Sequence to fold (336 residues):
Amino acid sequence: MSRLGFFFKRLVRLDWKRMWSTTAVIRERSGKGRLPLFTDMLRCAVKYNAGYMDYKIAEMWNLNDAQRRTVITRGISNSIVRRMNDKAYWHFFDDKTQFNELFKEWIPREWLLINEKTEPEKLRALTDRHDALIGKPLEGSSGQGIRKYTKDDWAEGSEAFLAKLRADGIGILEELVVQHPEMARMCPTSVNTCRIATLLGDKRQGIVYAFLRIGNGKVMDNVDCGGMAARIDLDSGMLLTVGADKAGNRYEKHPMTGTSIIGFKIPYWEEAKAMCLEAAKKVPQMRFVAWDVAITADGPTFIEGNSFPSHAVPQFAAHYPDGIGILPEFKKFIDL
Fold:
């Protein structure tokens, strides 16, 4: 589909009210008028396939045309995913039980499928071995629907707990991942995961980018749940940038723990990269996967893999102070 065709298709479904309200937020940060911002948003939509959230997150009002061409926008990201990932194989990543089974050599934790056939005795055996568990919907993203359960939740017995899990929309119950003490030093309330994207391109195969997702007081580290992210240097495993969240806030130190973000080194970094590169060969029809990796005291482990990687985290303006975005990194792997 041409850029103009993509634009007109999206135009019909555009939330004009939300788009206009976004200009009010940007006005406070940019000092520019709402109408010029709105007009520029539309221009970026036509020319760069940029949605209004792309415009906000990448702070495109600060960029010239040459810089804007280096931003991975929603339209460009969608085209990459459609081209690289065969939808017939998405289910291996979208269904968390299928993912856990396929990549079990890197997922040592216990888990149980929750559905109408789940036996209370199996649930009781799991709860007898753990003080807390994580429940997730079988499908979904952005940390939505994920809950932490403790002994209080199953105190009335397995059948009552099973009914609660079903009512909560939980499809899989998992053993908690205990992160490496160094990762907990950054933020102890959530498991802070590395988002490592592998790309099996025509020009090159390997890791195209990596970020550390950092929690900020909640159980989840996801940016849609108030968390932040910082770029990871692929060679050293050190954080290159300040932490940034979806609201545009920047953090040199974590606001809860005071831990410095720039220069923080990820433990077991070489092992984490090797794990992702090996896992990327399992389903070669899925050529672009963003892996969420937790670092434990025993090494890296997968939390999940993303069949449709978000383009938001890799494009926060705070991570590209020179205005040159991440698209040139993709061009080393594939033609765009």
Observations:
- Residues 84-98+179-331 form a domain with the D-amino Acid Aminotransferase; Chain A, domain 1 fold (CATH 3.30.470.20).
- The chain has three domains: 3-69, 84-98+179-331, 110-175.
- The two ends are 14 Å apart (CA to CA).
